[in-house]
Amino acid sequence: MSTLIDRRRVLEDTLAGYELLARRRVDAGWRAYLVTMTFRHLRGKPDAVLTQMLDEAERFYSRFVTRIVRRPRVEVASLPVLIVAPDRPVGKSGKRLRDVVVNDGLHLHGVLLVPPISRLRVAADEHVRSEHPFYVASRAGEPPRLVAIDVRPVDNDVDRVVSYGLKSVARRRFSPDDVLVLPKASSELS
After folding, report:
1. Domain ranges of the chain
2. Which spans in 28-96 are helix H?
3. pLDDT one-digit tens code per residue, 56-75
4. 172 phi and psi angles, rounded to 5 deg
5. How far apart are CA 80 and CA 152, in angstroms?
6. Three-state secondary structure call for residue 82
7. Angle, alpha carbons 104-110-35 (nearest 5°)
8. Which of 43, 50, 113, 161 is at 20 to 30 A from 22, Cα to Cα?
9. What percent of the chain has pLDDT over 90?
10. With 80 as the cut, is the pLDDT of residue 76 above it?
11. Closest residue by Cα to residue 57 from 149, 151, 142, 155
């Protein structure tokens, strides 16, 4: 019984840590955005599909970060933060069938935190919308995996948005190990 309680406490502490990270950045003047990433049909077992999705989220981030700072390896304190987790749709009226059928509805939700000083001349949501083809561009010879990136500004209650973005982890449909946090710590880099 204590092991179950310990696991719950670790999960709650982990999710609270993500909320605290986001709140501290927003309090320091960073902008928060709710991010949703959807994908074309991906082949493979569920774990392989999720790995492909997280790889595409990393690819998006690696492209986006160069629009924020000129030298990502040097300007580490000014790097945007992306926290995404897998999610599945819940029953809603008016939901498009395509959204539920492709990859069994699996997609990524999360929060993007952008520093107050960056190379962007417009808000991140406007930038991603106008540069959408750049971010979903396919790898050589392959159709694009990432179909859509929806980025919406968060004007208040960043805690609620982080909680919403990570709700599938909170509901234990996915593990905290499935959460992708970027930039990675230097100890995680090869």
Report:
1. 2-183
2. 46-68
3. 999 999 999 999 999 988 88
4. 60, 25
5. 15
6. strand
7. 90
8. 50
9. 70
10. yes
11. 149
